[in-house]
Design a protein that fits this description.
This protein is mainly beta. The protein has helices at residues 9-15, 59-63; strands spanning 5-6, 23-32, 36-45, 49-50, 53-57, 69-73, 80-81, 85-97, 103-111, 119-122, 134-137, 142-150. A hairpin with a 3-residue loop joins strand 2 (23-32) and strand 3.
Length: 151
């Protein structure tokens, strides 16, 4: 295994943040007959960069109060990436006028319409027993029914 570089723990925290080199988003609202609104949101992006690293025990740093462990990167940042992310959300809504009493809106929204289970986070510390385990995925499909009253 070739060590790419070492870094301070503070610098390591900034290199482990998500980063996508490209992203595309599309929002729309279409008004159907009878006052029904159809809306949607589509989102796609490159998978976030991940970096494999090892926590090295450093008693010299610990004795000075700088922390007992320091991360050592074993690949350059962005050497590995999670899978490409894409998602679609859709919604329907209908307004009903209640005369001088206000307006009632019935709404149904579907989030993650195609029920994708994209990996959003994975343990990348080689020195941990849970290395490679998925830590976070996209929430499953959710259907939300709503009623809104405006006066």
């Amino acid at each position: 295994m070739k060590v790419a570089k070492t870094c301070s723990p503070r610098a390591f925290l900034t290199t482990s943040l998500p980063s996508a080199r490209w992203m595309a988003k599309l929002n729309f609202l279409y008004q159907l007959p009878w006052g029904i609104n159809f809306s949607g949101f589509a989102n796609a992006r490159e998978g976030y960069a991940t970096t494999e690293w090892v926590n090295a025990y450093t008693p010299e740093r610990g004795a000075k109060g700088w922390g007992w462990y320091t991360p050592i990167l074993v690949e350059e940042f962005g050497g590995s990436r999670l899978e490409t992310f894409y998602n679609v959300d859709l919604g329907l809504s209908k307004d009903f006028q209640l005369g001088r009493y206000g307006k009632l809106t019935l709404q149904v929204d579907a989030f993650n319409v195609f029920n994708f289970s994209h990996t959003l986070g994975r343990m990348s510390a080689l020195s941990r027993a849970d290395y490679g385990e998925i830590k976070q995925i996209l929430n499953p499909r959710v259907i939300r029914l709503g009623v809104r009253y405006r006066f």
